[in-house]
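Schema walk-through. Below, the input block comes first and the output block second. Nothing else is stored per chain. Lengths vary across the set, and this one has 495 residues.
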Amino acid sequence: MANAISFACPTVKVYQLLPPCKEDLDEVLAFIFTGIKPPTDQDLERTPMLVRRNKVASALEWLKLNHCDYADLQIDYNTLQTYPESGVPVKVVFRSSVDGSNNIASATSMHETAEDEGNEVGPCPFKVNGLIGANLEAMTMAARRASAIQHIQGGGNVLAVGHSDVPESIYDNPQLYPQMYPWLFPYGSGGIGNARLRGLISEAKQKKILLMYHDKRFQKDCRFVIVAFNHEQIRRGTTSSFILAKRRNFDNIVSNVARVNPGVLQAIATRLREGERVIPCTEDEKLCFSLMDQIDHVGVAIQGSLAGKKNMRSELWSLIINRGAPCWFATLSPVDHKHPICLYWAGPDVKFTPDLRDYNERVRLIAGNPVAGARFFHFMVTLFIRCLLRWNDEKRRPGIFGSTSAYYGTVEQQGRMTLHLHMLIWVTSALTPQEVRDRLLGEDSEFKQGLVAYLESCHQGEFINGSLDEVRSRFSSRKEAGAPDLRRCCLVCAE
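--- output ---
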């Protein structure tokens, strides 16, 4: 788990007169195309390079009128006339390539003949060569360092991004988010923790309100979602640290930190990293484990931390001790890209319609709006608990598994970064595992037959309105008649 830290970018020159001349743009902007031929006008339209002077003039006039930081801006209309009506304002450099790709020959196998994946329509994504996140996850820290050293010693290039020496504070800094995301805060105001909202609502609540903004601009910006959540993690960790400092045994904690043997601590960390179960035996090892317990106290309140997961495991074992062994283990994985409600939350439509789009458009909508997927997941899990488990039912009706006495669920992400749920369910007056074993080994033939019938029913598909042949016959007749409402059952809402 990492933290998002913000630094101010170095400002070479502050312009009071905009737009800058084209010569100044050539010093800070450069576009390089690699391929078998120079880019066409159609290629340039698919990249963020076109500048239209009428649009630039309208944007500057709007900023001067509406943005608090552009009130003293002067618009240079003479320089604006030197910009093209529609074109590239800087020099475009073309580098010829034999195969038309940006692959490095030394990094490509001679047996690799497949074409590169790309988009025929829409924006062109950038292709990155080198180490990416998927490679780093399977590498140890030592392997990452070795790879970096090998890259530098082999004459590899390094991109250095300049920034200020001091990071931006996330406390009492309402202009942080408007400066980081000017496209989300076009007026330059309304930042997190601004003076108009301070003391009325918490910053976490304000972030939730921004995520529900009507045009979904905050939902679709994945960087804003990640940074906003990470800042909440930092705040919770800092608050827990303050609480720890106010405890009566804080002086003992400080003295224990000073007495920790670094060699023993490193040895324990190595053994734990290798998957070994470490039981403290010596006094130095016990002191290290005591220190780790205090660190866990700080991390419990941080969502997604290892200490938080350990706390959840302790809660689950406590519930098992109190209620006994659970009766059911359920996994819930809502299919977001096939449900009209989730597509409505992710799309731009104001009016809800149950009609579904084609597959590519559905997947693109869900991938571009993670907040909609999380809302849909929460909606489906809430319905499962309220309608199927009948938890806290006013009429005390039993759920589909019986009268639910307790449940405990955990959420994790799937391979495609969507959410799914694992849940343990306890049912009132249910048989314990030992009672089930005794009745299976006993003379209760009715119980055995019922259990076998249930297990067999779990491994077969059934229809609620007839046998397979009857349903197939009705389906074929309606298909031949051209029924307009004949759609795949997994792509419609329940009526």
